[in-house]
Write a structure and sequence with these properties.
This protein has 1 helix and 10 strands; from the N terminus they run ββββββαββββ. It has 139 residues and is mainly β. β7 and β8 form a beta hairpin. The N and C termini lie close together (11 Å).
Amino acid sequence: MAKSYSPKKVQVNFLNQVISGFADGEFVMAAMNNDQVSLVVGADGEGARAMSADNSGTVKLTLLQTSLGNDILSEALRADRLSNINVGPLLIVDTSGRTLVMAAEAWVKKFADVSLDKDVKAREWTIESADLQMTVAGN
């Protein structure tokens, strides 16, 4: 049976608010900050693995400049800088498949860069978490 993917079926929720209005092209990118397993090989060729305790990760969201998501993310960062407590849940689900990215505590790292032009531009936001959980799966 043929598998299907639809960008419309990707749901992004941050601080219990729906983020939408994504730019064309790559609009969600999630990555762990470090390798989860590292290998060290000794002089005699014996190898040893180390399992990293670092589960930190980064999510980048690319929104159209007209997206209400820009307002949500701007306000989240502004409030966090004032109160130092605006940290909350992040959930990204591909409902046409099984890929899942989530964090119980995530925050906006910095304001998106602003570029203005005669055309609608994209704004890239970075969200961080000290404990990003990912399931990279297919349909």
